[in-house]
Amino acid sequence: MHCGADHAGGIAVGDIVLCKVNGFQYLHLIKAIQGKRFQIGNNRGRINGWIGENGVFGKCVRIE
User: Fold this and answer.
1) What mean pLDDT value characterizes the chain?
2) Which of 32, 7, 28 is nearest to 17 (CA)?
3) pTM exceeding 0.90
4) Which of 19, 55, 58, 63 gives a 20 to 30 Å CA spacing to 39?
5) How far apart are CA 39 and CA 2, in angstroms?
6) Ramachandran assignment for 45, one of left (phi > 0), alpha (psi -120 to 50 degrees), beta (any other)
7) Which domain holds residue 29?
């Protein structure tokens, strides 16, 4: 999996992002966007909460 740090091209609902939550780094799906906040969740339907744009380190750009 390759994550790009430059996500200036935009993050959309359904994107996989590398983010930091409570001091830990996770891969999460973007479930919703509200301004500069992103609702994150997993692929089983669980919603984990909201993070700000500073909590997103990169977007998954390729899976090999």
Assistant:
1) 85
2) 28
3) no
4) 63
5) 22
6) left
7) 2-62
d(CA 13, CA 47): 13
Number of domains within the chain: 1
CATH number, residue 47 = 2.30.30
The label of the residue with tokens 């994550």 reads: 3
Looking at the chain, the whole-number percentage of residues with pLDDT higher than 90 is: 42
CA 62 to centroid of chain Cα atoms? 14
- Both tokens of 55, joined, read 């909590």
Q: What is the DSSP string of 1-62?
A: -EEES--TT---TT-EEEEEETTEEEEEEEEEEETTEEEEE-TTS-EEEEEEGGGEEEEEEE
Alpha-carbon distance of 53 to 56, in angstroms, equals 6
